[in-house]
Amino acid sequence: MFYLKLALLNLKKNSRTYGPFLLSMIFLMVMNTIVQIIFRNDGMSTLPGAQNAKYMFGLGNYIIVVFIVVFSLYANSFLLKQRKKELGLYNILGLGKRELAIVLFWETMISYVVTLALGLTIGSVFAKIGFLLLKKMTGFGSDFVYNFSFPAVLTVAGTFLAVFLLLFIWNVLQLKFVSPQALLKGSQHGEKEPKVKWLLALAGILCLGMGYGISVTIVSPIDALNLFFIAVILVIIGTYLLFTASSIAILKLLKNNKNYYYQLNHFISVSNMIYRMKQNAAGLASICILCTMVMVTVATTGSLYVGTDEMLKNFNPHDISITTRKDHQTDVEQMLRQLANQHHLKSIKVRDITTSEGLALIGKKDVYEALLLEQGNMTTIKNTEMFSLMTSEEYERVTGEPADIADDEVFLYEYSGKYPADTIKIAGHTFKIVHRINEMDAMPKAESISDAFLLVMSSEELITKLADELFPDDGYSADALFSTMVYADFQGKEEERLAFAREMKQFVTAMPDSPSCTSIDIDRESSKSFTGGFLFLGMIFGLMFTLATGIIIYYKQISEGVQDQQRYDIMQRVGMSHKEVRQTINSQVLMVFFFPIALAALHLAFAFPIIRKLLLLFGLANWQLFLWISVTTVLIFFVLYLLMYFQTSKVYYRIVERMPGTYTF
Hints:
- The chain is an alpha+beta fold.
- It folds into 3 domains: about 190 residues, no CATH class; about 230 residues, no CATH class; about 130 residues, no CATH class.
- The protein contains 20 helices and 11 strands.
- A 7-stranded mixed sheet has the order 4-3-5-9-6-8-7. Strands 2-10-1-11 form a 4-stranded antiparallel sheet.
- Helix 3 packs parallel to helix 5 and helix 10 packs antiparallel against helix 18.
- The longest helix is centred in the C-terminal third of the chain and has 54 residues.
- It starts with a helix and ends in a 9-residue tail after the last helix.
- The C terminus is likely disordered.
């Protein structure tokens, strides 16, 4: 009972440092509860297209758990650092390390119970709100109903029990290997002026340069997918090295600049930061990385959500498209018109175009050869270009334009990418490009993962012969090689359009030879679960990373305030005015805490090209939209960062500043 009372007294006495830690743990439990309840919702598995969202929520939950563990250890290290002096005093007064461990155990359990009670209560309430928000964002139907999940609650409770026990074990190990004298000194110990580690500084600049270089030189979305995490790791390493080594080098250069250094504000702030940077660099680097994560997460998920219609349009240039054999074309068109009339769709215009199937070719030197199935890997796929072939007769029928083409000539249409040369060599045949087509109604131009071209050739026989030479094992015939795409656009109510698309897809699925059918309305319904769930998780992660940023800034303010208290007290005693103290503090704090967000904005700017390529994998080619949302995200987060800075800086001022005329000797 004595140890329990002592633990309660300690928590009350250290409320200034324990309060933000408990609030952050409660917030993390609320976030985890929301995700767990939605993830374990019974209706999740019954919804069309919701499997993607369920997979994302499962993956997101693992990310949240990892983040909880890492952030808890980080915040706990600040707590322990501030309490070392107190624990050392208890140790000297007679409490052994075993007894201190018991006190820490009760403190940990009390913190866990408070976190559990408040976190689950608030989390259950906000889970309902989060459920309604997710339902609105995804368009999930009536089957997606809210139900409270006891297994979800038990999972959250067990996860956080493990986290708090891990913190307890970590704290006990810290006490075990530290002497009472070292504990009593706490975080106040002498610090030599750090030396500039030029090799580390150079390594940091090189890592950042390599990470930035990967991003700005990326051409293929496949390369972006392969190299994204390598670039991220390089930037993270470079950021930490930049703050630990390069920052000291910059401060030393400022110190050597006499015109800058020998000014009151600069003299004190630069001197303080030189001695402090060694131990605080990791915290500032962490703030920078968290700021970057917030910006990247929110900007990316926001772009995908806002750009949903554009992504659907890239994948579905027309409202409905059916690719079938030419002898089934009439049946498909008749059914299209019949179902459109049944569902009261207006302005329906049915069109068709016949081309070869897409041929995957890879350029070797100056000749295109077939990409065989066994050659398919990430390296070859990124260099693959898709070619569709059309007869001149079909081109004249579709466009109404003449196409008098010789056997060694082609018309070229670039509906994705650019072809720079005036000739094209395919399987030993050289064709001269005599005309470049500006647009084709059936194939609107769009940026995609790989380049795609349409070649108009003189005859069906030439195209069949070319396909046979490229793929001799397939034994192409004209019937097997050519297919007809029937496509249509129409107007109508959303539910009627969707019902029409579903019936049309059922009809096509029942046809022989497995024709394909794509509908923008069906894809829109299924994509809501993906983009909505993705944005919802992005909001969750953004809130968590923002909270972590605020908590780290708060603890840094407290930690640095305690260290600077005695320094500023001495300076005020020797004649430094209250106004000069405040100016010096402003100069120092502004320099320290605005460097991370400035570097984070720079990280996002250099990450823009590689993220833009990754968004192409989702079908979002509108880089202006991503740019607009990125700039908006940076501005909004900067405002939040300012609020966090001003709120936490008040704590620093209260610790450091003495009111004029208050001297203690």
